[in-house]
């Protein structure tokens, strides 16, 4: 039995790096950047008005109300090109260029315009309502680096500097293969002794957030069918995720089949609850993760191992789930011989602390409770977490 961190090291050692490709910016969320994103211009590109109103020389307005001559207009997309002199004002719109000579904008509500003149009713402070040239960013500044995962919030910043297309690392092609003679498709009505295949859909959706995933046709607990299914696919995919059939039951065929197919098995027992029988193997270049069939076990092991591998293959800087700390709301029992990584619900309490509630964990099959999880909590082997303890958590994406 190996520790979670040893398992992660082995996976890192056996993963390979994927090549670079170009994608449309609109499809880049979740992708890992393969180039540096830099500002290709100063922003704002000119002194920009934040208000509709009048560009003035602040000195002229010290003794407001002051009457100034309106000599023109500056609108977004077409500024006013002459230099303003003392006693003059330029009508200006939000987003427009502040004319040379002006050092303030007075908002329209504090002005009265008639007969080619404007009365500024209150003094304008120098610099007021102006975003200065290059105050947001200077041309050439690095904004995002290689290895960062693109989020929706980053899109505007990237778009502003002309990246209609962007270089990202290729995503691995991932296949999801469920096994088990008791499993029927989700559109079917389970008969006696049967349950629906929730794992394939769940894992496909998880995997789609970091790779390109497909569901393979389900296979029963039968050596020959399993062999055929794995053998057919192993060449086509970068990553194969199987579920079920990794325990020590009489019909758990995943490991023997992998061996027959010449796959090298690197580990098959992790000190982890849930998820102890997780298998990691490789044949050719294809990484194979044999996850346990219990939906919660397969979810937890996906997030710990598969997601990390998939993002690492894309050269992500931080491929593991983001870690943090939270205060334990109610005692969480440790397992005697393994570390636990349990689904949990994070909230904040009235003191402003981040608190963690373990989701009632009636064995690893409690995937109904898992539906509310927004984090995983780490419970060290044989060390219960008591109310008020600070625990390490991992945020689910
Ligand atoms: P196994 O890992 O094959 O021993 O399965 C452990 C438990 O997970 C059993 O109760 C299975 O019925 C259940 N299970 C296995 N595969 C799936 C699946 N694809 N969807 C939902 N539950 C599953
Ligand atoms: Mg089974």
Cofactors, ions, other ligands? adenosine monophosphate, magnesium ion
What kind of sheet is the major sheet? 6 strands, mixed
- Contiguous uncertain segments of 5+ residues: none
Q: Proportion of β residues?
A: 25-35%
- Rg, rounded, reads 30 Å
Derived from helix and strand composition plus strand pairing, the structural class reads alpha/beta
Q: Kindly report how far apart the N and C termini lie.
A: 28 Å
Care to count the β-strands?
Answer: 26
What level of helicity do the residues show? 10-25%
Average pLDDT for all residues: 96
Large-scale geometry: elongated
- Spatially, the strands of the biggest sheet line up as 7-4-6-5-9-8
- Count of DSSP H/I helices: 7
Molecular structure report:
With 397 residues, the protein is an alpha/beta fold. The chain contains 7 helices and 26 strands. The strands form 7 sheets. It has a 6-stranded mixed β-sheet with strand order 7-4-6-5-9-8, with no helix packed on it. Strand 23 (339-348) and strand 24 form a beta hairpin. Helix 1 packs across helix 6 (295-313) and helix 4 (223-233) crosses helix 5. The radius of gyration is 30 Å and the shape is elongated. The two termini are 28 Å apart. The mean pLDDT is 96.
List keywords for this structure.
alpha/beta; binds magnesium ion; six-stranded mixed beta sheet; 26 strands; binds adenosine monophosphate; 7 helices; about 400 residues
Topology:
Layout: H1 4-14, E1 20-24, E2 37-38, E3 48-49, E4 53-56, E5 66-74, E6 88-92, E7 104-107, E8 111-114, E9 117-120, E10 130-131, E11 142-144, H2 155-159, E12 165-169, E13 173-178, E14 183-184, E15 195-196, H3 198-208, E16 212-215, H4 223-233, E17 239-243, H5 254-260, E18 264-267, E19 272-273, E20 279-283, E21 286-291, H6 295-313, E22 323-328, E23 339-348, E24 354-358, H7 367-370, E25 375-379, E26 390-395
Parallel strand pairs: 5-6, 13-16, 13-17, 14-15, 17-21, 19-23, 22-24
Antiparallel strand pairs: 1-12, 2-11, 3-10, 4-6, 4-7, 5-9, 8-9, 18-20, 20-21, 22-26, 23-24, 23-25, 25-26
Bound molecules: adenosine monophosphate (AMP) and magnesium ion.
């Amino acid at each position: 039995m190996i520790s979670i961190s040893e398992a992660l090291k082995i996976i890192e050692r056996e993963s390979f790096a994927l090549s670079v490709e170009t994608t449309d910016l609109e499809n880049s969320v979740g992708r890992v950047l393969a180039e540096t994103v830099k500002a290709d211009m100063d922003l704002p590109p000119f002194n920009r008005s934040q208000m509709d109103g009048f560009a003035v020389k602040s000195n002229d307005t010290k003794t407001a109300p002051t009457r100034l001559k309106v000599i023109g207009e500056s609108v977004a997309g077409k500024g006013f090109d002459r230099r303003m002199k003392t006693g003059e004002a330029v009508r200006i719109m939000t987003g427009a260029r502040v004319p040379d000579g002006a050092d303030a904008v007075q908002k329209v509500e504090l002005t009265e315009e008639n007969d080619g003149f404007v009365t500024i009713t209150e003094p304008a402070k120098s610099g007021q309502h102006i975003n200065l040239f290059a105050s947001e960013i200077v041309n050439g500044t690095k904004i995002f680096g290689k290895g960062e995962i693109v989020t929706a919030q980053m899109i505007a910043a990237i778009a502003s500097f002309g990246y209609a297309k962007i270089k990202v690392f290729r995503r691995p092609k991932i296949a999801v293969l469920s096994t088990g003679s008791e499993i029927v498709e989700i559109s079917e009505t389970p008969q006696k002794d049967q349950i629906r295949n929730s794992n394939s859909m769940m894992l496909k959706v998880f995997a789609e957030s970091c790779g390109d995933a497909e569901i393979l046709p389900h296979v029963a607990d039968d050596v020959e069918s399993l062999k055929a299914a794995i053998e057919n696919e192993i060449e086509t995919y970068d990553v194969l995720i199987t579920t079920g059939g990794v325990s020590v039951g009489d019909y758990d065929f995943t490991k023997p089949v992998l061996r027959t197919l010449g796959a090298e098995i690197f580990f098959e027992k992790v000190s982890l609850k849930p998820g102890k029988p997780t298998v990691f193997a490789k044949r050719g270049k294809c990484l194979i993760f044999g996850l346990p069939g219990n939906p919660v076990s397969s979810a937890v092991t996906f997030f710990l191992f598969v997601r990390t591998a998939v993002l690492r293959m894309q050269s992500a800087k931080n491929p593991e789930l983001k870690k943090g700390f939270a205060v334990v709301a109610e005692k969480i029992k440790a397992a005697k011989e393994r570390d636990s990584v349990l689904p949990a619900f994070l909230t904040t309490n009235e003191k402003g602390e981040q608190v963690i509630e373990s989701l009632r964990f009636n064995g690893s099959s409690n995937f109904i409770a898992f539906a509310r999880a927004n984090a995983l909590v780490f419970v060290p082997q044989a060390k219960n977490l008591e109310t008020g303890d600070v625990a390490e958590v991992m945020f689910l994406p």
